[in-house]
Amino acid sequence: MWIFPLFFWLLFSMFNKILMVCVGNICRSPVAEGMLQAFFNENNIVNNTIVESAGIAALVGNAADPFSLEIMTERGVDIQTHRARQLSAELIKEFDLILVMENGHKKHIEQNFSFSRGKVHCLGRWRNEDISDPYQEPREAFVKMANHVEICLQDWIGKFL
């Protein structure tokens, strides 16, 4: 599933807390959170990095979308316990790196929380691409999204080789 694991660890070991953000916190950000956490677990990387997620308009308390759950289970990643939560000033202050799914999310956060500038980045920034929202779309859109999230995480690795 992952390439360049040592470099990935070196990149993300610079950050103690990483927050993945999308809109509802039920489709994209739980997938990104799960993939990143699974990487640490699969590669027996013991560090103090915490990976979590939130939404800018979260469906608070909801589980991850059934398609996200299904696709991640197929990949051997368990996100069953995920519950959506709202992005807040407190969360933004608490996390070292915030990876958003769309440039619009970045703009929204920086406009509403000016102190966040410098720690908010698009997951797809190295491709200049947004991660499409598969909400209420067919399963294939979720597969495409999960593949895109994985590729973009790998891009972050490649930039720090």
UniProtKB/TrEMBL annotation:
It catalyses: O-phospho-L-tyrosyl-[protein] + H2O = L-tyrosyl-[protein] + phosphate. SUPFAM superfamilies: Phosphotyrosine protein phosphatases I. The active site is at 22 (nucleophile), 28, 133 (proton donor). GO terms for molecular function: protein tyrosine phosphatase activity. Keywords: Hydrolase, Protein phosphatase. Residues 16-159 form the Phosphotyrosine protein phosphatase I domain. Its EC number is 3.1.3.48. Belongs to the low molecular weight phosphotyrosine protein phosphatase family. This is protein-tyrosine-phosphatase. It comes from Piscirickettsia salmonis.
